[in-house]
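Protocol step 4 of 5: obtain the predicted structure for the target chain.
Materials: sequence only (see below). No template structures provided, no constraints applied. The aim of this step is simply to have a reference model before the mutagenesis design in step 5. Sequence pasted as it appears in the construct record:
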Amino acid sequence: MIRLLALALLTTAATAQTFEEIVPPDAEVQVLANGFGWAEGPVWRVLEGDLLFSDVPGNTIWRWTDEHGLEVYLRPAGRALGTDTPGETGSNGLILDHNRRLLIAEHGSRSVTRLDAETWVRQPLATHYDGRRLNSPNDLALHRSGVLFFTDPPYGLAGGDDSPQKEQPHNGVYRLDPDGTVTLLIDDLTRPNGVILSPDEQTLYVANSDPERAIWRAYPVLEGGALGEGRLLFDATSMVDPETPGLPDGMAMGADGTLFATGPGGVLVLTPGGEHLGTIPTPMQTANVTFGDDGHVLYLTSHDRLQRIRIAARGVGF
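Step 4 output (structure tokens):
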């Protein structure tokens, strides 16, 4: 367990809440399981009372409950076992659709899919844009209208941007409409990664996991799922350091709009205006977070382990 140290509490008197009010000083990060290749994409299922998350290179979606601990939920999670295509084989980001079906950003199949929990059949929802295969869908955010936003960096391709398998000339942020149409929304981010909507769904936040431009941007969501001109939310480029591992990646949303964003040193707590209140420190790179349990527990997928911490803030949707 890692006790939050006072020196990590970067508070500001001008904010409505201080970091200590959101994350009490005696809060502890608890390790639940470890031994994963790269843990990612956690999603809490309220009715089942469980957490699903990806081990990307392990090609497995795991299930965690307090009662049973760790169990395999889906394997293979992204590409058939035994295939020898270069690149990562597994799933990454996971969310639930409005019918509580699992939506999967698959590195291995280079697609966004939907899982039928009764037949265990995955239906491809997005595989191409402009006649070319996607890179490796990474993270997902679903709007109440049914519009699905997703990011498509090259991380799942062996060699990244230099991979001979890369067909897209950009690393994009896309919109998938209910009728199956895929639209490119953003093409000027070098490493679009985590993506999440504000509680009122009027703002889309996108993380850019480039150490040379480690930033989060905020885009107004317009009619029909178009995006307005984005603004810089927070720039963590100066914070990137081997001593504080991590880059802008997955995010969780507080009910009041507070953003819990994985980045250099752990999980950064940001206001909707982009003020950095403080950081929940983790000694290893944390890739993603989500709220679970009663809405006051933050689950962290941190490199080779699954962790959680109880905080005062409540997640959106609880």
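Step 4 remarks: The chain is about 0% helix and 45% strand. The two ends are 26 Å apart (CA to CA).
Proceed to step 5.
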